Amino acid sequence: MSKQEDPRGRRDEDAPDPKARRKQIILGLVMGAIMGVLISALTEFWYWLPAGLALGLATGAIMKPPKA
Question: Does this entry carry the keyword Transmembrane helix (predicted)?
Fold first, then answer.
């Protein structure tokens, strides 16, 4: 194993920047909150807000941030 690879086999160049990862997760949370509030307002069922936040967090964590 060379110095440029981590144990999972990815190269250092392929690893996302921590700032980009944080921005991606925050963006996912914001979008999830917006969708949760909108669906909660339409259905008058407030549990859609935590569901939207969870979905946004999961989406932000799974997606690969764009290269800077």
Answer: yes
Residue among 4, 1, 7, 63 nearest 32 (CA): 63
**Paired tokens of 1:** 């194993």
What is residue 8's DSSP assignment? T
pTM of the model: 0.68
The count of structural domains within the chain is: 1
In a domain, 7, yes or no: no
Over 60: is that where the pLDDT of 63 sits? yes
Condensed to tens digits (0 to 9), the pLDDT of residues 47-61 reads 999 999 999 999 888
Q: Which residues contact 3 (CB under 8 A, 6 or more apart)?
A: none
C-alpha span between 26 and 20 (Å, rounded)? 10
- Phi, psi values for residue 5, rounded to 5°: -110, 145
The number of residues making up the chain comes to: 68
